[in-house]
Amino acid sequence: MTPGRFITVEGTEGVGKSTNLNFIQQWLEGQGHRVLVTREPGGTPLAEELRSLLLAPRDETVDPMAELLMVFAARAQHLEQVIKPALAAGTWVLCDRFTDSTYAYQGGGRGFDQSVIAQLETLVQGELRPDLTVILDIDVEKGLARASQRSVPDRFEGEAVAFFERVRAVYHELAARAPNRYAVVDAGQPLEQVQQAIKQVLTNL
Ligand code: Z5A
Fold this sequence. Notes:
The protein is of the alpha/beta class. It has eight helices and five strands; from the N terminus they run E-H-E-H-H-E-H-H-E-H-H-E-H. It binds ligand Z5A. One of its GO terms (cellular component) is cytosol.
């Protein structure tokens, strides 16, 4: 059995991940692939509980190390229960955020050294990395304006613009370091053009 491919979608707030995940799923299914759509943090009942704990605004200050370990705890569960079995069964896995979010938010945003995150990445994932990561890129303020039209802000959405500028800078850095694995798509364009660009990336894959 040929293993499935692992595709992740990343970006800062309001960049249009949910909107474009649907598009990617439909496109892949149209090519005859079986596709599992999932998300991080989350993807299993336990990991979804950890997600709720991570995102809920609270009076208590969340220690950055506690946040980092919770993200990886959720990821360990998600990988073993969902992602690895699906890939082994030949299903393509399309994941809304993955470890690049940890590099961006806990690394860039919270200030963790990338080497600390890399150690946890190896511990939890072994050698498993996405085959393709689509980074939807948008001017931070424009993305925040889009996001603010939707729901009540979660714990991350309450951060300052400078936090998201650091998050965005890490995404650019990751993409520059491994251009074969990452595709940066300008998400500030009209949706039709964003999806045209994504389609080109998928065709190349
Ligand atoms: N997090 C972390 O810290 N560390 C980790 O390791 C992981 C995650 C895995 C939850 O993520 C939080 O978890 C996240 C980082 C942290 N920070 N926050 N917040 P999330 O993915 O659930 O949350 P989010 O980033 O806010 O995503 P979202 O709510 O799903 O938004 P989105 O998917 O990017 O956007 P959207 O809902 O598709 O689109 C937003 C609006 O823009 C909507 O009205 C669309 O119709 C509109 N839109 C989309 N595209 C366009 C274009 N091209 N033009 C015009 N309007 C558009």
